[in-house]
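On clarity, I found the account of how folds are encoded harder to follow than it need be. What matters is that the chain and its backbone geometry are given together, residue for residue. For the editor and my fellow referees, an illustration may be useful. For illustration, here is how one protein appears when written out as sequence plus structure tokens:

___
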Amino acid sequence: MGHMIEVAKSGRAQCRSCRSAIGKGELRLGEETPNQFGDAGDMSYRWHHLKCAAGKIPDVLKAGLETWEGEVPDRAELDKLMAEAEAKKPPPYPHADRAPTGRARCLGCSEAIEKAALRVAVERDIERGMTTTKGAGYLHPACAAAYVESQGGTHDELVEQLRANSKLPPEDLDKVFAEV
């Protein structure tokens, strides 16, 4: 069935983004997710106000809007909110950027990465007690190739992915490639 938009049948559903009630008769987005209480393969919906979804899960809202055949009030505002949310989203890993703070430590050499210094961001596993999540890890450009190779990647793959995913100006990207 996928993600869907529908008119709220009652006023009992709560928005999963802002935690306030979705009023009866309002349009709402249903984000399809696995039902943790059902059998394997059972699905259920997490409900969101359309404006909340535009800021938090724009891809899901876009999929829901494609299937909705009715009129959507404030559609221009929703499109604007989705575009703003997409612009804030970080690029895929690995990518190169400038460090906004001086708090990050290099995964390769464990030294601090200075504020405004060029760095390479990679996806890594973060262990938290009994669970493991994904998150960003940062490297000095000079440490990046050795780290990626230790994780099973190659230098050429790293350079190709950095070129595709990074939003840096060309002169900064050239500096990263010189160090990698």
The beta strands are 4-7, 27-34, 43-49, 95-98, 118-128, 131-139. Residues 75-88 form the longest helix (14 residues).
